[in-house]
Amino acid sequence: MDGGVNGSGLPVNNKQRAMLPNKSRGDFTRNSRKDSEGLSESPDLEFEYADTDKWAAELSELYSYTEGPEFALNRKCFEEEFRTHVSEKKWTELDGAEHRAHAMRLLDGLEVTAREKRLKVARAILYMAQGTFAECDSEAEVQHWMRYNIFLLLDVGTFSALVDLLNMEIDNTAACSSAVRKPAISLADSTDLRVLLNIMYLMVETIQQDDPADRPEWKIIRETFRTELGSPLFNNEPVSVMLFGMVTKFCSGHAPHFPMKKVLLLLWKSILFTLGGFEQLQTIKVHKREELGLPPLPEDSIRVIRSMRAASPPASASDLIEQQQKRARREHKALIKQDNLDQFNEKDPYKADDSREDEDDNDDSDNSIEPETFPLERDEVMPPPIPHPPSERVSFPKGLPWAPKVREKDIENFLESSRSKFIGYTLGSDTDTVVGLPRPIHESIKTLKQHKYISIAEMQIAKEEDFQKTPLSGGEEEVEMCATELLYQGILPSLPQYMIALLKILLAAAPTSKAKTDSINILADVLPEEMPTTVLQSMKLGVDVNRHKEIIVKAISAILLLLLKHFKLNHIYQFEYMAQHLVFANCIPLILKFFNQNIMSYITAKNSISVLDFPYCVVHELPELTAESLEAGDNNQFCWRNLFSCINLLRILNKLTKWKHSRTMMLVVFKSAPILKRALKVKQAMMQLYVLKLLKVQTKYLGRQWRKSNMKTMSAIYQKVRHRLNDDWAYGNDLDARPWDFQAEECALRANIERFNSRRYDKSHSNPDFLPVDNCLQSVLGQRVDLPEDFQMNYDLWLEREVFSKPISWEELLQ
């Protein structure tokens, strides 16, 4: 898993690298080389993690560049329809009543039976949702009219009509069977679906944007829509469940023409809008802790992470060899003036693509190179701060960013080992009796209890155990029917298939996937009917395909992370059910495979053509595209969506492995340490934090030699990751360093999950022993019993055989 895939160079990565101008490629290598030598001149990536990118970017990612000509087609369909009713004025010149009347007319047009006419009306509605851009002069104006038109469309009931049409298209067996038979699927096969999904996405994406300038009635419409979207109003299931159904149908091969990127984007935005983003998650968490009577959170994790600075990446093997050769000069160099150091480094030969970087820790290759850290290296882990506006930063006292935490189990283990050591007896789970223990142990227990943290999950597990132990006296559980609960109930019957389908698509979209592993074709909604004939068209399509894959990775990573986080808050066993099926579907090696590439190249990939992005392309005259302009790309320091995807995937990996010994050992077995260590080259604090967390959990299993040669990484873990008191993460002498039985651990967890699911959701198989018994003779005899038809026909025979022909001893019966 840690092999030199990167060294040999994947075709996709090389393309991405080719998209970078030589100058910038040299700069990146140059900066990383300087970092490893302690100068930290590579700037932090000014990346602000959020639920989504800027609104304009999210709108532009809905369309592939191949769909460009359809903007004009939508406009034509709208204007033909509009001119039959309004001859003089423009759309932007009409009043509210006229706008509403026309929207109602279009909505009626969606109900015609002729497919061609219906598609034309749908295109006209799409043009409205795109902001009637032909009458606008700027992007801001397009966005203003988009917002106005979409609220109008929602108010007249367009969304439910679209859901019905989408259901009809999903069940369109003729389209499915024709697509299955086709050797090559293109944009033309999914036209109807794409138009419907485009309108639905624009509606969800626009309405979820909270604008303080919105009218009061819009705010009411918005909240009503949020509730409806998350409840089983449309087709007796939440919209998200219907979209999950599309994903599995696509992956099963029954509907290869489904435009998967659009389905996944709509699914992500529907989940985000109905369940809430990361800020809302934090609010729900605080509220739940209050309800359960737990102490407040020690800090706001979102603000802490935003205020962190990136550490310099650890040195690569080639740099360490150079350092060893220059060890004699090294101590003297720490005293030289900074400008002299800069001159010294300028003489270094920089290479554009050093394959040796990828071998930076073949476990024992750089063993004895760095037995101690020098003053210069100590400074390197925390580079000089970059000035930020005061509002963005949280001022901490000097020290560690996170308050330490201790679990109840840790206190119990500490007391048990202390008692057996000093007194020779144990007391089980008693954490209060400290008789006979020395005073330093008393102090330790006091400190541990000060930092004790009880999670919502622990409370939910304890409550569930009570329900299982005492099903009768426990009473009926009150389940709050929030959007998360409704979604879980909707996806519960097919959740394993949904997880497998999402991971299949993620594998096909990952840049490290070779052609042979692409068992499914995810390019159905990007490939044109006629393949390119010129070099320029081929380059444009190449950019489009890479961008398409990146957007799919972004959507899937966000969907999985949001679901895991919301399910964990709603009930820990809902989270565990989803997480376990992800693990069974090989999610852990898949994410590691994703990171086993030149991650810096992925994050700085320039797979976008800004002049073709919506809404820029519909407002401005398009310049002539040339091969040079396509190769140059944009001037951004990094690609927002790729960095966002990487952070999400790391967070998912953390969620799957946290407190799971057998899954942590999977990280060790799949040799994730060198892959993760390479990801530290990205100078972004949040990404580094989640990489360091993953390295921390496996450090004790990597051996003394690895720890010795990776002291810089160890320092970064110490400085950035939360401390668990009495957690021996940096050493091997821990209770958890035991043989691991993956099957036993997962089976025990699975049994708990199945008990929870059957108790709460499977009412048909409830235990007959626990059903209430009716002891009243009159009510039992008064119950209506439906007798089968054949019994009623042969009633006389039954009476004769069972009643009249049998002797009855009335004396015995009456006694």
Automatic annotation (TrEMBL):
Task: Provide the species name.
Answer: Monopterus albus (Swamp eel)
**Span list, region Disordered:** 1-43, 310-396
Please report a single Pfam family linked to this protein.
N1221
Using the record's annotation, list all stretches that form the Far11/STRP C-terminal domain: 438-795
Q: Report biased composition (Basic and acidic residues) as residue ranges.
A: 24-37, 333-354
Q: Which InterPro entries match?
A: Far11/STRP, Far11/STRP_C, Far11/STRP_N
What does the record list as GO biological process? Answer: cytoskeleton organization
Q: Where in the cell is it found?
A: Cytoplasm
- What protein name does the entry list? Striatin interacting protein 1
Might you report a single GO cellular component term? cytosol
UniProt family annotation: Belongs to the STRIP family.
Q: What is its main location?
A: cytoplasm
Task: Give all residue intervals belonging to the Far11/STRP N-terminal domain.
Answer: 42-340
